[in-house]
Design brief:
The chain is an alpha/beta fold. It has helices at residues 5-12, 26-33, 49-62, 91-97, 100-116, 147-163, 194-199, 202-210, 236-246, 261-264, 269-279, 292-308, 313-336, 346-354, 404-410, 427-439, 468-477, 481-486, and strands at residues 15-17, 38-41, 67-70, 121-122, 169-173, 215-218, 252-254, 284-285, 356-359, 368-372, 394-397, 416-420, 444-447, 459-462. The protein has a 6-stranded mixed β-sheet, with no helix packed on it. The chain has a 5-stranded parallel β-sheet with strand order 4-3-2-1-8. A 3-stranded parallel β-sheet has the order 5-6-7.
């Protein structure tokens, strides 16, 4: 295939790429200089604030104002808080408080921290309306199940992040909250009519657009009620007729990760990327492990599609122009942003306000804490959670473990605290906890996911998330000396 630098540069302009190391490899620096719009960082790129700041500075030396992004939602989905959990409550906790000023202040504080490390784009907030209790991918990432509540906090989140000079990205359009499957693994289908989808799923996106959101990220889900087949990421009617014409969005349309099976599992990443750009995606988030060779394949596929007439050069130019405008916005925002005073405790204050207690917590003297493991979704990853940092005797068990007698023996003369995460999704956890409570009905249960399954117990504590600050808030209520000392 003959070399066409102009066309290849236009193809590069649609790419938001990952890389494999703590320092930018040569192929990334050369790619940025040759027109790649930006990068998306993941856990494997982040070691410390100092390292991240230096890394991002090196990316900016390669080209003028590249997009430097990450998935930093706060709460359960955190990249900068990977070592111990996030210092910011997630959406479920903020939705439980339902104070839009708090949400705006929390996201502004998060944005200031991100900007200070050199990030200028955050693939957040999630504005999905979580109406499926068994949703395996959204859950606490949503502000709640009420569309109007989600809408007002979507707007507040966008305002907070962008006041800090970080471009927000409302996701997952048209709405991933009614799914019972994970689009990382398959193509979920939302069976709802157009009227319901407009009243429920689309309302938060309209609020985010009205708040000035700079980008919107697509979902790899199918919504027959809104027309067309296949994932929304590849659906021109959804991305143009609905998102742009009906909802009035003029910013950058970002694809969810193109390595997810919901979009590329049957056709491969290069072909899915061509179809996504043709459908209206401006910026392709390629995923975590799509490195140099595969990035080159995506670029070649885009160039070849133009030559074959399957993708117009005008569509590439349109995408490149929108992405350039977004880069201009973050550049001007960085110049215009004045120092913003951020209260370091805003995250903990929000987590405390979100934590709920049903029943009376008795004075706990050296309690025995039993945590039941719950598999982390791909979006969340392996981030520490639980009450272990504040209670010396904490054990983490698999709910399938045959250790009921051992737990009861170990806790025989002590107060018992049981910690779960989204117990409503795991029958084995419910069975084990119910057996424990049959023997110890006065035990305290702490739910660090959504408080849907509520067993009879002495006291039931809901944190609406498993971030570090959520755990600290619960530990304070349970009388941990370490937690109380840490926050004095």
């Amino acid at each position: 295939m003959p070399h066409d630098p102009t066309l290849e540069r236009l193809a590069n302009a649609t790419l938001l790429v990952p890389f494999e190391s703590l320092q930018a490899p040569r192929w990334i620096l050369d790619g940025l200089a040759d027109g790649i719009s930006g990068v998306c960082l993941f856990h494997n790129n982040l070691e410390s604030p100092e390292q991240v700041t230096a890394l991002n500075a090196s990316l900016c030396e390669a080209t003028d104002t590249p997009l430097i992004s990450l998935d930093e939602e706060g709460g359960d989905v955190t990249r900068i808080g990977q070592a111990r959990g996030s210092d910011y409550p997630g959406n479920a906790a903020l939705g439980a408080v339902d104070d839009t000023d708090l949400t705006r202040a929390t996201l502004r504080a998060l944005g200031v921290q991100l900007s200070g490390m050199g990030f200028n784009m955050d693939l957040a907030p999630s504005v999905d309306v979580n109406v499926a209790d068994d949703n395996p991918v959204i859950g606490t990432r949503s502000f709640g199940s009420d569309a109007e509540l989600v809408a007002r906090h979507a707007a507040a989140s966008v305002q907070g992040l962008q006041e800090a000079g970080v471009a927000a990205c409302a996701k997952h359009f048209p709405g991933h909250g009614a799914t019972s499957q994970d689009s990382h693994h398959t193509l979920p289908v939302v069976e709802a009519d157009a009227d319901l989808l407009r009243r429920r799923e689309l309302l938060p996106f309209k609020a985010a657009i009205d708040a000035g959101v700079r980008s919107i990220l697509t979902a790899h889900i199918e919504l027959p009620g809104l027309g067309g087949e296949g994932p929304a990421t590849l659906n021109r009617a959804l991305l143009n007729d609905l998102l742009r014409k009906e909802l009035g969005f003029t910013g950058v349309v970002v694809s969810d990760a193109m390595d997810m099976r919901g979009v590329s599992g049957e056709i491969g990443i290069p072909e899915a990327s061509v179809l996504a750009v043709a459908a209206g995606c401006d910026l392709l988030c390629l995923g975590r492990f799509v490195y140099a060779d595969q990035v080159a394949q995506v670029r070649s596929a885009l160039v070849q599609a133009v030559r074959e007439g399957r993708l117009t050069g005008e569509r590439l130019e349109e995408a490149a122009e929108r992405n350039a405008r977004l880069r201009d916005w973050v550049k001007e925002s960085a110049k215009a942003r004045t120092a913003t005073e951020v209260t370091e405790t805003v995250g903990l204050a929000g987590a405390r306000r979100a934590t709920r207690v049903d029943g009376d917590i008795p004075p706990l003297d050296n309690p025995y804490v039993v945590e039941f493991d719950a598999p982390a979704g791909i979006a969340v990853g392996e981030v520490p959670w639980g009450l272990g940092p504040w209670f010396r005797d904490t054990v983490r068990l698999s709910p399938e473990a045959d250790e009921l007698a051992a737990v009861l023996a170990a806790a025989a003369d002590r107060d018992l605290v049981v910690v779960v995460r989204d117990a409503h999704r795991y029958p084995s956890t419910q069975e084990f906890v119910s057996a424990l409570l049959s023997a110890r009905p006065k035990a305290v249960v702490v739910e660090m996911g959504l408080p849907i399954w509520r067993p009879d117990c002495g006291a039931y504590v809901s944190t609406y998330g498993a971030a570090h600050v959520n755990g600290l808030s619960a530990a304070e209520l349970l009388g941990s000396a370490g937690a109380l000392k840490a926050t004095q």
